[in-house]
Write a structure and sequence with these properties.
By secondary structure, the chain is an alpha+beta fold. The chain has one domain. Helices cover 49% and strands 17% of the residues. The strands form two sheets. Strands 1-2 form a two-stranded antiparallel sheet. Strands 3-4 form a two-stranded antiparallel ribbon.
Amino acid sequence: MGLFDSLQVSGSALAAERLRADITAANLANAETTRTDQGGPFVRKEVVFRSAGASPFNAVFHRLGRSGEAPAGSVQVTEVVNDTTPPVMRFEPGNPDANRDGYVAYPAINPVAEMVDLMGAMRAYQLNASAVSASKQMIQQSIDILKTS
């Protein structure tokens, strides 16, 4: 893997972690949303990642310059899925969103778990930003060595 490949891998991870942080922030912001345009409470969302270009066959062709795929180890967001956990029912007979039994459906969102996920996304983003910075520094040092040669 070359220096530019490492930039591409870290760049893909930065984009993926940013989306993860955005989705987690949306989950936290809607933790008490009982009514949406689709009807019912907000449904928690999760981001699904996969490794892109991970097969050795694709990696060889990438090095030969014959593949438009990302280098091995790149991160790709495959989809954003809805959590299948049923809503939390709370007895609030005076709430306008209450059913006939007086229960209101709230999103199944645990703020503590969401904050942990957000901190994980932020930390992964910071680490990948550091990797980009280190790669940039190595490329600059390589250019400096070539200048003096």
